[in-house]
């Protein structure tokens, strides 16, 4: 996954005032997976990407850097 996804996920999480653990619970993931996604060590599957976009109310295109909105 590109660096843009990692940065945007971290920024969106912080904007909501969530810890990695809190976000992991919302998305039914482990804190380690959130950490790995935020450092670019793990690429989410399509279902997880969609769930992240729905939770933060942004498009998948925004998350992966294909749009700025």
What are the main properties of this structure?
globular; 5 helices; 0% strand; 69 residues; mainly alpha
Number of strands: 0
* Structural shape: globular
Q: Low-confidence stretches at least 5 residues in length (pLDDT < 50)?
A: none
Provide mean pLDDT, rounded: 95
Helix/strand/pairing class, anyone?
A: mainly alpha
Assess the beta-strand content as a share of residues.
under 5%
Rg (CA only): 11 Å
SSE layout:
Elements: H1 3-15, H2 20-27, H3 31-38, H4 46-56, H5 60-64
Helix pairs in contact: 2-3
Write a concise synopsis of the structure shown.
The chain is mainly α and 69 residues long.
Structure description:
The protein has 69 residues and is mostly helical. The protein contains 5 helices and no strands. The longest helix is centred in the first third of the chain and has 13 residues. The model has no long low-confidence stretch (mean pLDDT 95).
């Amino acid at each position: 996954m590109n660096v843009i996804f990692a940065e945007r996920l971290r920024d969106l999480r912080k904007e909501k005032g969530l810890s990695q653990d809190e976000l992991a619970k919302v998305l039914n993931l482990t804190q380690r997976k959130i950490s790995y996604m935020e450092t670019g060590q793990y690429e989410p599957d399509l279902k997880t990407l969609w769930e992240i976009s729905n939770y933060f109310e942004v498009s998948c295109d925004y998350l992966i850097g294909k749009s700025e909105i």
